Every structure is written in C-alpha cells, then in structure tokens.
Amino acid sequence: MALAVKFQDMVDQGEVPDYAAIARLGYVTRARLTQIMNLILLAPDIQEAILFQTKIPQGRSSGERAWRTLTAEPNWKRQREWAAARNAIPLYPEFPPSRSLK
C-alpha cells in the first residue's frame, strides 16, 4: 500500500513519466506494478487500516492477495463489508464515521 501511494506521488510530481518507468526501475513486470497500484482503488479507510495496521485480518484471506482481489470491487461500501466480515476493519455505517467534537 505504501509503495502504491509513493509511486502515485512520483507520477503526479513528474519524477517518472508513467508506471512502466517505475516497473523498469524496480525490475518488476508491468503486471506486478499494476497489482500494486490497484491497491489505491480500495476505500480510504481500508487503505489507512492497511498502512497503519490498525487491525490485521486473520486466516488465509489476510495477505496482500486478498486485498488485491478486493480492488476488483468498485463499491467502497461492499469493500468495507468484506473487510469488516474478516475483522480487517471496523464496519462504519458511513465514511467518514461521525465523530463528536466535544
């Protein structure tokens, strides 16, 4: 997840022209880089949970592969439900969760 954020920033800042250049620099295939970059498609709270490991899912579906699979789901609400069902993140009724400033 951190690599995806950093690589996107590098492209946005013009440090590299595109993802293909990052793949060449990192000696990885463009397909692998696409897998990494697709993590940006996750809901922001899921990205945060991954980055800061606020809660780590248990079991076979706990690794990067599981998160990559979830990127195919464009609906953030469904992503959150999937992650909450695996105890990867708390299930909020909406994002961001309502917080009292008191």
Explain how this protein is built.
- The protein has 102 residues and is mainly α.
- It has one domain (2-85).
- The chain contains 6 helices and no strands.
- The chain has helices at 2-12, 19-26, 30-37, 44-52, 64-70, 76-85.
- The protein is elongated, with a radius of gyration of 15 Å.
Question: What is shown here, in short?
Answer:
The chain is mainly α. It is 52% helix and 0% strand. The protein has one domain.
Topology:
Layout: H1 2-12, H2 19-26, H3 30-37, H4 44-52, H5 64-70, H6 76-85
Mean of residue pLDDT values: 83
Shape: elongated
Determine the N-to-C terminus distance: 33 Å
> What's the total number of strands?
0
Tally the helices. Answer: 6
Order of helices and strands: HHHHHH
Task: Provide the number of structural domains.
Answer: 1
Structural class given helices, strands, pairing? Answer: mainly alpha
Low-confidence regions = none
**What is the C-alpha radius of gyration, as a whole number of Å?**
15 Å
Strand content: under 5%
> The biggest beta sheet, please?
none
- Residue share in helices? 40-55%
Short key terms for the protein model shown above:
102 residues, mainly alpha
